[in-house]
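Q: What residues go here?
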């Protein structure tokens, strides 16, 4: 079974080299790599993509349209039965594709195969995402984008939703694949390496509450049937949060009330907290 690794690239520079080399080092041989340059303006990236000599690699150029559009363009040009997205600044372990293909081939009802992830860069250590369950997926995304799926399922759900320019377009994509009735398998190994950068599309999205709210609202409206079918999970989570808030108030409510009555002390406590953070960061 041929695997197409699709890499959207925007000003990734030398980080792209690491990503591509991690794919070329795979123990599984029937692989092609499709890179979509999503309107890069960086001279190093442009030169690298123009002059590369990587085997089994095709480069497609397009005006900047976002990662979802770039992935869709790459998949349209791909010839593999199985698809594995990889962001241009991340890496995969040498056996990831081989083990993911084995899981997909063994169980035709499986629509998504992923693994455990290790962070590197500005942070290091395991990426402590909750394990996949349908309940967890209803609440929020627990599957990173570098997960294998079937091209046929990509066609069935209409690809990645390109209007989700800010982020979590992979979450919406996984929802639609799971809603087809497909199963999800997580390999019990650290086979994906997720680069953490001080400033990135993800950090910008997370800090913009308006963008977060509008994005998740669009995901909800576009997948009402999925969320309605699994509404019990949403309300279990909601009322669980109410219980946690009630417990917090029972424990710390008197302290909050005290600081409300003495705003100068609240301000002092805030200054002290910031000072302690700076001291411990040194």
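A:
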């Amino acid at each position: 079974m041929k695997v197409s690794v699709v890499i959207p690239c925007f000003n990734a520079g030398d980080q792209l080299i690491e990503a591509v080399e991690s794919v070329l080092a795979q123990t599984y041989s029937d692989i092609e790599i499709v890179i979509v340059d999503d309107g890069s303006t960086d001279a190093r990236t442009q030169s690298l993509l123009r002059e590369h000599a990587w085997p089994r690699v095709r480069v497609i150029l397009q005006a900047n349209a976002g990662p979802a559009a770039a992935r869709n363009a790459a998949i349209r040009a791909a010839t593999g039965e199985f698809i594995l997205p990889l962001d241009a600044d991340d890496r995969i372990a040498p056996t990831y594709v081989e083990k993911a293909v084995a899981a997909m081939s063994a169980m035709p009802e499986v629509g998504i195969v992923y693994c455990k992830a290790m962070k590197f860069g500005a942070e290091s250590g395991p990426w402590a995402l909750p394990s996949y369950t349908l309940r967890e997926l209803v609440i929020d995304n627990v599957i990173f984008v570098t997960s294998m799926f079937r091209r046929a399922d990509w066609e069935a759900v209409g690809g990645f939703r390109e209007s989700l320019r800010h982020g979590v377009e992979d979450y919406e994509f996984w929802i639609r694949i799971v809603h087809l009735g497909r199963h999800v398998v997580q390999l019990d190994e650290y086979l994906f390496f997720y680069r953490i950068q001080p400033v990135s599309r993800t950090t910008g999205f997370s800090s913009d509450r308006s963008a977060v709210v509008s994005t998740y609202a669009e995901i909800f409206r576009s997948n009402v049937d999925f969320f309605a079918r699994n509404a019990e999970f949403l309300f279990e989570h909601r009322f669980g949060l109410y219980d946690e808030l009630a417990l917090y108030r029972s424990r710390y409510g008197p302290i909050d009330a005290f600081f409300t009555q003495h705003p100068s002390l609240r301000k002092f406590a805030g200054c002290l907290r910031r000072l302690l953070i700076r001291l411990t960061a040194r």
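A: Context that may help when evaluating the design: The chain has two domains: 3-229, 232-281. The first strand starts at residue 3 and ends at 9.
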